[in-house]
Amino acid sequence: MTSLLWIIPVAYIAYGAALWAVTWVFYLARMCTIWAAPMLYGTPVKLTRVIAATAEFLSTWLNWTVFTVLLLEWPKETFLSTRLARHKRQGHGWRQRFADVLGRTWLDPFDPTGHHI
User: Fold this and answer.
1) Per-residue pLDDT reduced to its tens digit, 90-108
2) So what's the pLDDT on residue 63?
3) 64 CB contacts (<8 Å, ≥6 apart)?
4) For tag attachment on the chain, is the N or C end more exposed, with fewer CB atoms within 10 Å?
5) pLDDT at 2
6) Which of 114, 109, 107 is nearest to 81 (CA)?
7) Segments in the chain below pLDDT 50
8) How many beta carbons lie within 10 A of that of residue 13, not counting itself?
9) CA–CA gap between residue 72 and residue 66 (Å, rounded)
């Protein structure tokens, strides 16, 4: 029994990585729909609503399941971006640096405004 306990952290890491990847793909899709919004009408607008709802759900799920463990705190915000923005602006120490790196590397370059968190 104890020889199988290594499966739990490995499975959690794999789960977190897979959820991050799926959430990031939907984040990219959402940022594309924000960029293209002025040019869309009809059916694509309905698709953008589905993409937005899915991205928000995944962000919330990632925030509550994976980043609660990574940041070693219960979330005060619904969405991961809001939580990272709080840590980047008001935090200190390793959480602030972690949020800054995630923002500069994974989020800000793909936001149409260039500034996501």
Assistant:
1) 988 999 999 999 999 999 9
2) 97
3) 75
4) N
5) 65
6) 107
7) none
8) 11
9) 10
Residue 104: its pLDDT value, please?
Answer: 94
Amino acid symbol at 27:
Y
Chain length of the chain? 117
Q: 2: which 2 tokens?
A: 């104890």
CA 99 to chain centre: 11
Are 47 and 26 in contact, with CB atoms under 8 Å apart?
A: no
CB 79 within 8 A of CB 58: no
Expressed in percent and rounded to 5, the helix, strand and coil fractions of the chain are: 80, 0, 20
Q: How far apart are CA 99 and CA 67, in angstroms?
A: 11
